[in-house]
Amino acid sequence: MKNFIFNRRTLLAGTAVGSVGLLAACGRGNGGNTTSAESASALGVGEDIAKLISINPKKRDELKEGGELKLALTQLGPDFNTASQNGNTRHNNFMVSALSPITIMGLWQNDFEGKGSPNPDFCESFQEELSGGTQILNIKLNPKAKFNDGTAIDIKALQATVEILRDGLDKGLNIVDAGPHAYIDSVEENGDAFTAKVTMKQPYYPIEDIFSSGVFHPEMTDKKIFNDGFVDKIHNEWQAGPFKLDSWNSAEKVATLVRNDKWWGEKPLLERITFRQMEASAQRAAFKNGEIDAVEANTLTAYKDAEGKDGAEVRRGQRLFAGGLNMSSFRLPVEIRKAIFAAVDRDAMAKIRFNGLNWTETMPGSMMLMPFSADYKDNFGEATKDWDAGKILEEAGYKKDGDFYKKNGVNAKFAVTIFGDDPSENALAQTIVQQMKTAGIECTIDNQPDANFGKVMGNKEFDLTFSGYSVGADATVAARQYYLSANNDGKGSKEIDKLIEEMGQIQDDKERNKKCNEIEKKHMEEFAIMGTLFNGPEIYFADKKLANYGAALFGSPRLNPRQWSNIGWIKE
């Protein structure tokens, strides 16, 4: 089952199973290939998460200059605006992060353990002060930083970003969530165009979330450009990063990136990166044939397809994913959603998902945090522990008639949408059909090709998917994005919205994350829109000579964009 993932700062869904602005340089967690392909398990609080990282770490002087990296993604485009609902999918974000980390991670970068820091390629310092109860952020931008068309990444870029994210919904821009930018009052020049004073309407924490979901070229403030201008167009001129677009073949879905001669940061080791769109099964065949250099294999089918290639090795770790029960808040009434939560046998689903992979994990209960986080709580388990599907439906006016519950002559019914051709995902779909039938709920299967994932998710053309979101090291952004009523077609409550507003003002990380858990549990109890089936492993097969690439936890090149310059090939 492929795991499509949206960025946490935007929609964050994924299935075969399917991000947030996080961050770069290798920290303590870059220890290397400490897990095996044969057996691994998720970690708990306090355990060494370095065990979940496997990237074949090498220093730059051990790697050769030049070479090409060939990768395949299940989706490229069609909308390459990663700040929009339609374009913000896991694989679009991954490709664009090599082309333009400023567009994906803004001013920030992550280390392997999830700690954020300013990315010096774009931001020299990012400091907070409180003046008379008003939070002020003093930002010093890197004066060398420019978009590829020569436009400076200065105060105007920050102002344009606020205009897009804070005001975008009111102006008809198809953004996902304003995030902390909703609380920005003003962005003013403070001495020169590269020194900004950001005044907040109210304090917001953590400050690492602010300008972490992209900083955008001023041209993107135009509604038509933002919503439609990136469809089948990558707009290299508005990007800024170590690589630039050399070519985009829209018919064959192939993007070729080469070193960016305008890049002021660390020079990439690689000369070229080629990304091509392929269905997941075709990717594994291409890897076996030497057409691509690495491939994900997070399911038994994928693992068996990819193994056995000479010169390849397995790199295995923890997938930063939570979800599996992502439901439409406007296509399914709340009683159906709650009944699904109550009726699903999560243990049985997890056994199917991890069959043959020898992966074990405690049943996860949070969309916001991984079980190894000190702030993690089993909110799903607590919210649903006393639920009974039949009772929920009967209290909503349904009556059992034959195999299914009915109301006004209509069955309690929904469709599960799956993507691609992986038998593991089809097995999950068949299993939930049977589980729901046992509970008196009719379930059908809607099978879509991988390439339709962004369209289906962005336009919300589904009842339920086995999708989810990437998971960050802090729950704040996720709590707002997932549980604010404005982000769920109005499904929510003023009480929860108020809790979310209060949550962002709590400076202490532990207390703020405690409030996030309170919000998540309450929202799951009352609205039942997103639920957790699994986290799962992250498994790559890769050429043994490929270095600094693989299962990287919070230090993946998308979240740690400076890593793109250090991926390379071991010297012969």
Q: What's the number of helices?
A: 15
By helix and strand content, what is the structural category? Answer: alpha+beta
Q: Tell me the CATH topology of the domain at 321-534.
A: Dipeptide-binding Protein, domain 3
First-last Cα distance: 36 Å
What fraction, in percent, of the residue positions are helical?
A: 10-25%
Label this structure with key terms.
572 residues, alpha+beta, Dipeptide-binding Protein, domain 3, seven-stranded mixed β-sheet, four-stranded mixed β-sheet, globular, disordered N terminus
Q: Could you explain how this protein is built, in words?
A:
The protein is an alpha+beta fold. The chain has a domain at 321-534: Roll (Dipeptide-binding Protein, domain 3), CATH 3.10.105.10. Helices cover 24% and strands 22% of the residues. It contains 15 helices and 27 strands. Strands 1, 15, 20, 21, 22, 23 and 24 form a seven-stranded mixed β-sheet that branches. A four-stranded mixed β-sheet has the order 3-12-11-10, covered by helices on one side. The chain has a four-stranded antiparallel β-sheet with strand order 6-7-9-8, with helices on one face. A hairpin with a 2-residue loop joins β18 (404-407) and β19 (410-411). α7 (334-343) packs antiparallel against α10, α13 runs antiparallel to α14 and α14 packs antiparallel against α15 (509-527). The longest helix has 19 residues, at 509-527. The protein starts with a strand and ends with a strand. Residues 1-39 have low confidence and may be disordered.
